Amino acid sequence: MNLDNVYYNESYNVMLRYPKNWIETSENRFVGEDGFVQVSLIRSDNNLHEVAISDAFHTLEPYGKNPQVIPIKIDNHNARLILPQKHKKNNGEKLYQGSVIIKYEEPVEKNNILYNYLIIWIDVNHIFSIINTIRIL
What we know:
single chain; 7-stranded antiparallel β-sheet
């Protein structure tokens, strides 16, 4: 898989690679016919696992009813990988996304607010290849 484009966000202290044929459709979101990646921030007083559980089991079920929450390291930072347990909801709707939540060692500031977590949503077909390119700056 060719991950030729580089996303670099100095404010978020992150860099990652994504496929060449994807285009930026909104701030920090890149989409192609075969997938997407979107980067954002989370502010929470909860610990990493609680933040991940809260996202994974959100009432809108973005990862289905029983997603997996897996402790991992991303560029030597504690993180949680969230994967849908199945690729379809009970109503037959396909689940395309997983995510990774990374705890910053030091919070980053955006619009005078401190954020202590980075979240990156990625389609399930690209999640592992993109995760391997993430660098926290």
